[in-house]
Write a structure and sequence with these properties.
This protein is α/β, with parallel strands linked by helices. It is about 45% helix and about 15% strand. It has helices at about 25-40, 70-75, 105-115, 130-150, 165-175, 190-195, 210-215, 220-235, 240-250, 270-295, 320-330, 355-360, 385-390, 425, 445-450, 465-470, 490-505, 510-525, 530-555, and strands spanning about 10-15, 45-50, 60, 80-85, 95, 155-160, 180-185, 235-240, 260, 305-310, 340-345, 350, 375-380, 405-410, 430-435, 455-460, 480-485. It is globular, with a radius of gyration of 24 Å. The two termini are about 30 Å apart.
Length: about 550
């Protein structure tokens, strides 16, 4: 007999990235919103930070009439909220809350947190205070809304907190509103990311690491503490992949209740009628930038490859990408010229005026610009990791080089001054995308690439890579649409060689082979749509609601 799942009547979901596009969690929440809206219709309410004072968030549209009576009541009690719509597919309700007033009682809040949940906030620094005050404010929003509209109505309510930044709010609700079911998702353990980011081997020694001890060693006590205690106290603890689930057991001493893989909403992908036109426009733009920068006439026959994501040089495998392109320079099997873009936001200063002038003129040039490896000037040119590694390997994009590497160090929002296309309008121009991650709980970039029919390379240290292998029933190869390279703590050189060999082989593919790889990439992406993955969330809601129900029964 199939168990009937309990369904929530209301879901409140908080994240630092609601209406605030700073990382992958924005993509998780904003693409999932449409699927939840279809079933809950305005009873899924997202809560985000309101720091958009002078300049409004481009992702939020205020609607003062929404919950107008409650908005007035909240303001009377010192809770400054703005209610409106998150301007993503599905247009869910979003509440932005001003958390600044709570800094005045920060010590009192931290004292309460220690007293009830033994969370160590003494070692807080950087973004810990800001995140905690937002998290506290988000919980007060839920409490106020619940008391105004839902109290005594037997509504099944879920509060879903994302990342350590929202842990404090989950614990507040756990204590003050026991009738609300709580879910906590860690998208990457703070201590796991820190171990990897500090050049320590994470995977071979995972069984031997003690999370609390490592937090002390890496000065991460407060973030680790709030994350660990939230994981232990919520009704349902979740993460995004099997690989991160192992981290949770070892570093947080808590197995997850359910894994929630990150899906995708393909409403971002152009319809067939527009797809080829947009792909041609993206390729034209990439080639025009390369030609203006390098003073060459590269045509559409070149192989365009790219990597992208956050600027985590080792964790995202940017170092291996540069290494692989350097080795490709000497590969005799390479059949085409390769132009490789590194689309990673660095400490960007301004777009290059000389490059802008060349692009605007429409003329052809036969001499390269000075420093023909970068499209925007950086504040830290001499200390930048990408430019430093290219300089070390003497990679200067010379005319005779069959591999050119171009660093595009800005956020692709359509207004960077050089590309002036959004990331989604550019990614579909690639022939191959390469993401050789060392630390990657899920991996949206490869999923986005295949959704735009671009075959990609990833690793089995990425949650997405492991998922792709499980779907294929074998290790993915580039002809499957996704090549999954085996990566360990120590096989950096073999990974670089595997990338080099794959790009070299792909340069010799026939049109039929390329079409097959692109078709297989597209087919795999359809298996990762939210319509396929939302069932895991339904399971999490059920677990949390049942625990909350049992708690309330025991109280009676």
């Amino acid at each position: 007999m199939v168990k009937r799942l309990l369904k929530p009547d209301y879901i409140f979901e908080s994240s630092w990235e609601v209406c605030n596009k700073v990382g992958g969690i924005y993509t998780v929440l904003s693409t999932r919103a449409k699927t939840l809206q279809e079933t809950l219709r305005d009873r899924i309410i997202f809560i985000g930070p309101d720091f958009w004072k002078e300049k409004e968030s481009p992702y939020f549209r205020e609607e003062k009439a929404l919950f107008a009576e409650w908005q007035w009541e909240a303001k009377e009690k010192g809770l400054n909220v703005r209610v409106g719509r998150w301007t993503v597919p599905g247009e869910p309700i979003a509440i932005l809350v001003d958390f600044n007033p709570f800094f005045a009682k920060k010590n009192e809040i931290y004292g309460w947190l220690w007293e009830h949940y033994q969370v160590d906030s003494l070692h807080a620094y950087g973004d810990y205070d800001e995140a905690s005050m937002f998290s506290y404010a988000a919980a007060l929003v839920v409490e106020s809304f619940h008391n105004h509209y839902l109290k005594g109505k037997k509504a099944k309510v879920v509060y879903h907190a994302n990342e350590w930044m929202c842990g404090l709010g989950a614990l507040y609700i756990n204590h003050h509103l026991p009738e609300i079911a709580t879910i906590f998702t860690t998208h990457a353990t703070s201590i796991g990311r820190s171990i990897a980011g500090n050049q320590k081997p994470l995977y071979d020694y995972l069984f031997a690491y003690n999370g609390d001890q490592m937090a002390g060693e890496l000065n991460m006590q407060s973030k680790h503490s709030i994350e660990k205690q939230t994981a232990h106290y919520v009704d349902c603890f979740t993460t995004v992949s099997d690989i991160t689930a192992k981290e949770c057991v070892e570093l947080l001493d808590k197995p997850v209740d359910v894994v929630l893989p990150n899906g995708f909403c393909n409403s971002f992908v152009p319809a067939a009628s527009q797809f080829n036109r947009k792909r041609a426009a993206a390729r034209k733009k990439m080639l025009s930038i390369a030609n203006a920068l390098l003073g060459e006439e590269l045509d559409d026959d070149v192989l365009l490859v790219s990597t992208s994501g956050r600027y985590e040089f080792r964790n995202k495998g940017i170092d291996v990408f540069v290494e692989a392109m350097n080795r490709l320079l000497r590969d005799r099997e390479l059949k085409k010229t390769v132009v490789a873009f590194i689309e990673v936001p660095g400490w960007v200063g301004e777009p290059r005026k000389d490059l802008q002038e060349r692009l605007a003129s429409g003329q052809k040039y036969d001499t390269p610009l000075e420093v023909p490896q970068v499209t925007h000037w950086l504040h830290n040119m001499s200390q930048d990791n990408v430019l430093g590694m290219m300089k070390y390997y003497d990679m200067h994009n010379r005319k005779e080089d069959k591999v050119k590497v171009i660093f595009l160090p800005c956020y692709l929002d359509g207004q960077d001054g050089i590309v002036n296309l959004t990331y989604y309008d550019l990614v579909l121009g690639n022939d191959l995308c390469i993401y050789p991650s060392y630390y990657e709980p899920w991996g949206y970039t490869p999923l986005e690439a295949i959704a735009f029919k671009v075959p990609c390379i990833t690793t089995d240290l990425a949650g997405f890579g492991l998922w792709a292998n499980s779907v294929f029933g074998k290790t993915g190869e580039i002809t499957d649409g996704v090549q999954v390279i085996h990566r360990t703590d120590y096989n950096y050189s073999e990974v670089a060689d595997a990338i080099k060999d794959t790009v070299s082989a792909y340069s010799g593919f026939t049109k039929k082979q390329i079409d097959t790889a692109r078709k297989n990439a597209d087919a795999l992406s359809k298996k990762a749509l939210w319509s396929e993955f939302i069932k895991f969330y339904d399971e999490a809601y059920d677990i949390a609601l049942r625990k909350a129900g049992e708690r309330m029964k025991a109280k009676k």
